[in-house]
Amino acid sequence: MTPSPDRPLRVVVAVAGDDPDQQAIRAARERLAAGQEVVYLGTGLTPEQVARSAVAEDAVEAVVSQETVDAVRRALADLDADDVDVTPLAR
User: How many domains does the chain divide into?
Assistant: First the structure.
């Protein structure tokens, strides 16, 4: 996605697996406050689902639980979308 002055950066925030989503909600709120467009995907997703959603949403970043960062990166690479940054949720 190429950022433009009239369109904010879009990020997806998700919790893959069964982790609690409080960190994800906090991350989504922080990014909204910073002017980014947030697509909150919720919980219980596989890394592949997160990656496909990031691609479909034309996101520049996927914010996911720490344990799934590598798996989401691999899933994005499989989709030729390794230009999407993957950031772990803060603990």
Answer: 1
